[in-house]
Amino acid sequence: MFMVLATAEMSLRSSGGSVSQKRTVSGLLAGRVIKKPTLEDGQQLQEAAIQLLDQHQNLSSLLQELENPGPCDKLCAENGEQNQNQNQAASDANPPRLSALLLGSGLRRQAARLGVSVGALSVQTVLERLMEITEREEEEEERWREMFTSSQRVQLCVLLQSTKELLSQTVLCPKRLWMEYCRHQHPKLEVVYYLHKYYILTLDYMLHSDENVRSWLPPQLKALCGWTPPPEEEETRRLQQKLLSAVVGVLVAAGFEEAAERKLSLLCSSVLDDMLFWLLDIEEKRGEVAERWIQTLDASLCGDSVSPAALQRFFTHCLTQIFTCNTRLTVSDAVALQKEWTLAKTSHCLTSLYCKLAVIFSAEQLLHHLQQVLETHEVNWKHVLCFVSALLVYYQAARPCLIELLSRLLSSAFEGYDLENMITAFLLARQGALEGAGVFPPYSDWFKTSFGGSAGFQASSKKSLVFLLKFLSDLVPFEPPQYLKVHILHPPYVPAKHRNLLMEYVTLAKTRLADLKESVEDMGLYEDVSGSRASSQPQCPAAQDVEKAVSLFGSTGRISATVMEASIFRRPYFLTRFLPALLKPRVLPLKPDARMNFIEALKKADKVPAAQYSSYVDSCQRHRQQNKTAERPDLKEDPLDVLRIQLQELPGLVDAGNDGEMSAQLSRISHTLSVFPASGDELTTQTIVTLNTETPQLPELHLKVVNLILQNFCQCLLTASRANPPNKQTSWGCRFVCVLLDNRPLLSAVMQRLWDLFHHQAASLSPAHTLGLAAFLVHLHASMALGPLVQLVPATQAQAAPLAEAISSAVPCNSHANMLFSLRLCAAAVSYGLCRGEPQQQQDYVPPSLYKKLLYLIPRLFPEARGTAACVWPDEDGPDVLWSSFTQDRNIWTQTVLHLWRHAGFQQLQQTPRYQLCFSEWLHNELRVQRNEDVLSDCQRQEYQQWACLQLYLSRPEEQGGCGGDVKELCSRLLVAIMDIMDQPPSELEKPGSAEPSGTGTCLPDLLSRLQELVQEAELSPGGAVLWDVLFELLSQRCSSSVSITSQLSLQRTLHAWNRVLLVLPAALFFKTKPEGGRTTVDCSQLVEHINQHQRKACSPAGVLPPLVTAHFLKGLLCAAVRCDRPAGELNGAWCQMSRTCPLLAVSAVRWWQQLAPVLFSLWTRLRDGEPPPEQLQLLADCRRWACSLIRGPATRMPPAAVLLCAASLHEACRSCEEPPQNFREVLRSLQPERHAQHQQVLVSLLGLWLKDYLDALLFPQENRCQRSRTFCSELLAVLVDSADWLLIFRSNEPTRCHPVSLTSSEDCTRLMPWAVCSLLQQQSADFLQGALQTPGFLHSALLWYLDVLQLFLEGDTPPSEPKVEPAQILNRTKQFVLGLVSQAPPAALSSGQLRQLECQCAELDPELAAALSVLLEPHSLSPEVDFL
C-alpha cells in the first residue's frame, strides 16, 4: 500500500504538482494536511491509486487485506473528517473504502478477462474466503464447537462488511451468493445470522428460498442450545443468546404475522413446533439445554421484528401444542397420578416455559384459552394440570378466575349432564387444592361449597343428584383415599327422601377404603385431604392432631372448634385416639407448658373423663421417678459417626464370643444403616440386584459407609482368627452378612464396591484386606439361599448369578498381576471355606467359581502341581492348620498354596461335577491371557498348554470335563473355543468383566499352534482321515446356526475365523486318499461340498476365494497326490473333476495364478525331485498365456483346458487392462463361436463372469467400474445374441441345469442376477433386442427375470437404486421394458405351455402383464412346444 501511495504521488507530481525533489513521503503527506486538500484532490488520489493497483492485484490476497485497513483508507478517512465542515453531504454518504473499490474494480477486470459475469466471479471469491474462514480453524480446534472462535468471527464480520460494500457497487448478487452457498453445504447458523445482521440477505428470504431448511435449521438450533461456550468466552455466550433470539424473532414474525406468506408461515411454524416438542422431550433430562431455548421465548420479541398480535398468536399456539402433545394419559390416570404433578414436583424447565408463555396474557385470557382447548382437543392432562398449578402460584389473580371457571364448568355440566365438564372441574379444583390453602381453597372446602348445601348444583332435581352420585361412584376405583374421606365426612346435600342413594355411595367408598387399608374413623382432625402430602401422612395421625391443637391453643388461648366438634360428632376417635395421644405419660415440667394448659382447659370443659385424667397424672409421676437418672441419647448425631462408633465396638464383641451382645450390636448397626438413603435405582426386584459394571464410583456418603463395613469385617476376621480357627468361631460372619442382605440398596452398593476393588484396585489391597474380603465372599456364598441374584449390566452372563459367583467374574486371570491377586484371593477363600464348614457341608462354604480359578491357576503357575495329587496332608492335622498358614505372616504364600493344592479336602471337591473345571472353561480362561503380560514365557506356556491338552484333558473322562481319550473330541472343542473368540464382534471384547485385552494380543496364536500339533499328530495316525469329517461337520453346524437378522454378517465372521484356522492346519488334511481298483486315488468330494455350500457365501472379493485359502487348497491337492501311486495322473484327474464340480476354486486359481504359480511349481519340484509339473498345472499357465496373447497379440491356439478355465483366464486378462481393449470385439470374433462349440461355451462362461462383475458394480458403485463391465457384457451379448446357450447362465433355480458360473456366486447374488440382467438389457440397442426376440426362449426368460425382480421388491429385498431414483421407478421401468418386448415379439416366441405357466404366475404378481400376454399372444398363433430350455 505504501508503494501505491508513493507511485500515486509521482503520478500527481507528473500531472503538474510542484513539489521539491528532496521532500520525504511523510513530509509530503504532512504538507498536504496543512494545505487542507479538497475533496476533489482526494478523489483524484484514489483514482490514481486504483488505476495503479488494478495492474498488479490478486483478488484473494486483496480480499484478505480488507481485514486490516491500509494507509490509504486511513488517509481517506482523515480527509473525510477534515472536509466535514466543507462538505457535510459527502461525509454522510460514507463512501466505500479504497480496498473495496480496488476489489470491485479487480473483479470487473478479471471477469472481463475470463469471459464470465462479474456477479459469478464475486460470489465465487467471497465463498472461497468464507469457506477458508469457517473451515480452517475448525481443523485446528481440539474440541467441537457450535460457534466460531473470536478470530473467525472478526474475519467473518470484516468479510461481510466488504461484501456489503461490493453490493453497493452492484458487483455481487446476494441471492446468487445464497444459492451457491447452499449448493455446496448446509448453511452454518452463525453465518446465516451475520448475513441477516449485515443486511446482505434477510432471514425470511433465506428460509423461503432453501427447500432443505427443515433438514439443517432445527438440528443446528438444537445443537446450539446443547453447546456451552468455554467459561472464558463470555462474549460468545452473549452472542449465542442473541443469535437464538434473532432466529426465533424472525421465525415468529414469518410464521404468525397476518400478512405472512402461507408457505413460509407453515415452514416457520413447523420449525418452531419441532423445537417445542424437542424441548418437551428433554426438559426433565437436560434442563440447562432446555433453559437456553426457553430464554428465547421472551416478551422482548415485541419490537421491530414481531408485532404484539403475532407474539400473542405464537404464545397461544405454543400453549395449545403443549396441552395437546403426547395425549396418552387417560382421565383415570390423571385422577390417580394428579398428586405427582404439583408445582414442587414439576421440572423447573416446564414451569419456566409456562411463565414465559403466560407473561403477556391475563389470567382470564389464559383460563379462557385453556377451556377452549379442553373443549376441542384431547389433552395431555399432566401438562394441563401442571400449567394450572403454575398459573395459581405465579398469578394471584388466577385464584378467583379459576373459581369462576369451575362454577361455569359445573353449571354447564349439570345443565347438559356433561361428564367432560364435570371431570374437568374436579381435576382443576383438586389441582388447585394440591398447591395448598394459601394458593387455592382446600378440596374439602370447595366440595362443601359446591355440593354441601341446599343451593348446591345437585340440589335442583333428583336427576342432578343421581348424576353427581353416579359420577362419584365411577371415580371410586381410581380415587386416592383422601378424596373418598372428604366425600364421606362432608357428603353432598341430599334430601331425606333420597338418603338411600347417598348411603349406597358411602358404602361403596368405605369398601374401597377398606381395600386400601384406610379408615375414616382414624382420619386426623387436621389431616391434609388435598392429597398433596398423602405419601407422608402417618398411619395414625392422632399425635399430629395433638401437636396442631396444642399449637393453636398456645397462639389463641382457646380450644379450636375442630376439637370441640370432634368431641361431639367424632366421639369414638376423640376418646380412643386423640385423648390417649394427648395424655401420653411424660415428665411434667415444673412450670406448666402449653400442653398442660390445653389439658386443663379440656378438663374444665368436661371433655376429659375424670378417671382418665387421674390415671394420666399418676403415670406422669411414676415416669418422673423411673427417669430421674436416665440419660436420653442425642438423636441429632451424624448417622455416619454413630455407625463408625458401633462398628468399632463390634470386633471386641466378636473376640469376646458373646453371641447375645454381638447380635444386639448388629441389630443396632442394622437400624443405623436403614437411615441412609438408597444410592440409586440399582435394585431391580426383591430377588434380583443389578450390578452396573460401567458405573463410576459410588456417591461419597455411600462409599464411606461401604468402606466402613468392609474394613470392619476384615478387622473382625483378623481379631477372631487370632483366637480361634473359623470352624471354632461364632456365627458372627453369617449374621454380619445377613444384616446386609436385609438392606437391598446397601447390598447393591457393597456389590458395586467389591466389583470396583477386585476389577480395578486389586493392587492396592493389602494381605489383610484380601483375607477379609475372601472370607466375606465365602459368607455371601453360604447365605446364597437368603440373598438375591445378581444381574451384571452389560450382561456378560446369560442369567443372573448368586452373589459370590457374580463378584468372582470381577477377578480376571489375564495378566501376571491379576493372576497373582486372583490366586491369593481364591486360595484364602477356599481355605476359609474348607475350614469353616464341616466335611459334609464344605460345598456350602466353597464358591465353585473361586475353586475353579484355583484349578486353572495353580497348575499354570506351579509346574510341580501338574503331577498327580498323591501327596496330601494327613487328615489328623485338620483344616484349621491350613487356615492358620494364611493368617501367619512368616509363612510363604506360595508354599501355602501348594499345601492347599495337596490337601485331601481340596482334591475331594473335584469329584463333584459343579467343582470340575472342564476343558471348555480352561480354554475360555487361556484364550483371554495377555501374552505380553503373562507370567510364563513362550516356551513355558507351550509346555503348560501341551500338558493340559494331552496329559490332563485328553485322558480325563467326559463326565469329568475331559475328552475321554478322543483326539477328535479334543480338537473339536479346541476349534470351537478358538472360533468363539475369533467370531466375537469387537463390541463384545470391550465389555467390562470379559477380561479381554484390547490391542495387546491373547494366547490365540499359542492355541492355534496346539491345534496344529494335534491335527498333525492325528493325521499321521491310522484314523486321521476321520478328523477332517469332524471339523467339517462342526463348521457346517456353525454356518447353519446363523439365522438371525444379522446372519450374513455372522456368517462372514464365522468363515473369516474358519479361514484363519484353516491356514494353520496341514494342507493335505483337506483331501482324502482311498484305495480304488488296486490303486490309491485322491478324494476331494468333501472339500468340493464345503466350498460350494459355505465358502461361496462370504467371498471377499466377491466370486473368488482369498489368495491364501486358494493356495492352501491347491498345496493340499499336491501333497495328497504325491501319496498316490501315480501322483501326476491323480493330480490331473482330481483337478479335472474339481474344475467341473467346484467352479469357485477353479476361477480363484486363475484369478491368483500369478501369485500361485511360483509356489505350486516349486512345491511340486520339491515333492517329486524335479519331475516336470503335471499337465493340469501346465494348462493353467497355458490358459493364462493364451488369454494374454488374445488381448495383446499375436494370438495362440486355445489350450485343451476346461471351458471355465479358459473363460476365467480371458476374464482375468481383460480385468488386468486399465481400459477395455480396443480389439475386444475382434478377439470375440476370432473365437468363431459358430464354428466351434467349445468357443461358444467359453464366451457364454465369460459373459457369466462379466455379469457378476456388472452386478457387483451396481451394488457397490465405483468410478468407471459399472461402465466398464457394461461394455464387456454388451460386446459379448452382441456375439451371442443368436444363440440360446447364454440363457442357461440364469437357471439357478434348477440345480440339475445350473451353469457352472452360478456356483461361483453367493445365493444372494444369484437372486439379484435377474435384476442386473434386466438393467443391462434396458441399455441395449433396438437392433439387438429385435435379434434377441428371434432367439428361442429369450422372451420366456425375460418374463421370468422380470417376475424374479418383482418378487424381490415384494419381499422387501430392494437392491440399491440410482441416486434420486425410487425403487418403484426402477420396477416400473423394468415392467415397461418387458411389456415392450411382449408387444414386439413374434407369434412363435412362446409356446402354449410357457404361456399358461406365465399367465398363472402373472395373475397373482402382475395382472397387467397377464392381460398383455393374453391379448397380444392369441392361442392359435402360438408355436408348438419349444420348452427345450
What does it look like?
With 1429 residues, this protein is mainly alpha-helical. A two-stranded parallel ribbon has the order 1-2. Strands 3-4 form a two-stranded antiparallel ribbon. Helix 40 (816-836) packs antiparallel against helix 43 and helix 57 (1153-1167) runs antiparallel to helix 58 (1175-1192). It is globular and about 135 Å long.
The profile of the biggest β sheet is: 2 strands, parallel
Helix proportion range: 55-70%
Helix/strand structural class = mainly alpha
Portion in strands: under 5%
Unreliable residue stretches: 1-22, 25-34, 69-96, 530-539, 628-636, 681-685, 869-876, 989-1000, 1420-1429
* Bulk shape: globular
- Distance from N terminus to C terminus (CA atoms, Å) equals 85 Å
What is the average of the pLDDT values? 80
Lateral arrangement of strands in the main beta sheet: 1-2
Provide a count of the helices.
68
* Cα radius of gyration in angstroms: 46 Å
Number of strands: 4
